[in-house]
Amino acid sequence: MKFHAQCNFFRKESMKKLLLIFLVLIFCSSLFGYDVYIVNSNDETLSHYDTETEVLENHILQLGQYANQIVIHGDRAYVVNSGVHNIQVIDLENETTLAHIQCPNGSNPYWMAIHPDGNKAYVSGLFTNTVYVIDLIGNSVINSIPVGSTPEGMVIYNDKLFVMNSSYGSSAGSITVIDVNNDSIIDQIPVGNNPQFGAVDAIGRLHVVCTGNYGYGSPAVWGVICIINTSTYEVLNTLGIGGSPTKIAIHSNGTAYLADGFGLGYMAYNALSLTIIHSSVNLWASGGSFIQIDESGTLYLGDSMDWINNGKVYIYSDTEELLHTLTVGVNPQDAGFYYPGVGVDAPNNNKLTVSNYPNPFSTSTTISCNVNMNSHELSRIEIYNIMGQKVKTFISFPNRGLGTRGVVWDGKDETGNTVSGGIYLYKIITDGVETAFHKMVYLK
Fold this sequence. Notes:
Blueprint: H1 2-32, E1 35-40, E2 45-50, E3 55-62, E4 67-73, E5 76-81, E6 86-91, E7 96-102, E8 109-114, E9 120-125, E10 130-135, E11 140-146, E12 151-157, E13 160-165, E14 174-179, E15 184-190, E16 195-200, E17 205-210, E18 224-229, E19 235-239, E20 245-250, E21 255-260, E22 266-270, E23 276-278, E24 290-293, E25 299-303, E26 310-316, E27 322-330, E28 332-338, E29 354-357, E30 365-370, E31 378-385, E32 390-394, E33 399-401, E34 404-409, E35 422-430, E36 433-434, E37 438-442
Antiparallel strand pairs: 1-2, 1-28, 2-3, 4-5, 5-6, 6-7, 8-9, 9-10, 10-11, 12-13, 13-14, 14-15, 16-17, 17-18, 18-19, 20-21, 21-22, 22-23, 24-25, 25-26, 26-27, 29-30, 30-34, 31-32, 31-35, 33-34, 35-36, 35-37
């Protein structure tokens, strides 16, 4: 009897291990491949690149006039069509258009930033000096916020929206700071000439790209990076990078990449030390229509070529080694990454929704739960590693606005030690009922 009991025990343990291996294989499979969607502005189409099969499909979906940007959240993509004043909502599972969110005529929607809970977004109106608040559940504009002159790029960080007011390229450029919990203006920060885009570095500082006047003014004004404290709104430092930089992306290794406004290549500098790596007179790579970096550190560079024929997208490793060259549509303006199976819940105000954003993440992620209904009481959030070991429990949940409560997880366990990179599962307990496990990926 003892022998049979031991056999049963080992049989159960073996089954557990096999199940665990099976789950690991399922979870990890989504990390080996992901999808890249590229906006081709001049021929108004969307391209799709499968990183696992390395197959590129062009013209998979018709877009609107002057498509500027693509933002991906969960299994939804949002394309900003400036020329027809709308946001195109796309179902990435089926690659079909679900809706168009109409902005006011003449607004020229330029850039979009999604609130971490996924229920609302902000769109800059280039010609109306306004930021529009979008309800992503009802797909409609629900509010408008007057900002500075000619708003372009936007960044959300620590419940604040930073809006780059380019002021038609004049020296009166500024940054409007908005509280995303109540959509009120907190501050207005004067910066350099023609601030267009920005990004936040690893220590929470906002890098604002002030493009200058492209050398056409008198005197000529060249590119400057303004470094801003995101808590005090003080301009901490400036970097005279030169040239005419526009779009920016900061790599997890600390390198900030800048697209050249004339499409001649890319500049780079160390985001912490502000040491220039690729100067404006010694540009790296080709192109300059966009720069995007996936969660593994691979770089995607857009090249519009002559703006008439098909453009290119260059894929580089984090060591700046060219991996692939894609021939896409005319004037590729932006790219977004879709990780099937690692997404977030779609917004739905008829049931309890759970999500974390960003996912995958490298520094921190916000875990949110929609508790809009009075019948729900959030009691705790538990995080587990892939071995089933609990690494963190949260029992205090700040109000994150829009009927959601949640927490920010910085990748540390209960003892304050940083956990290893990999797949983590979390669940939410509300009214004594546990949600299903949700998956997130911590990249280090």
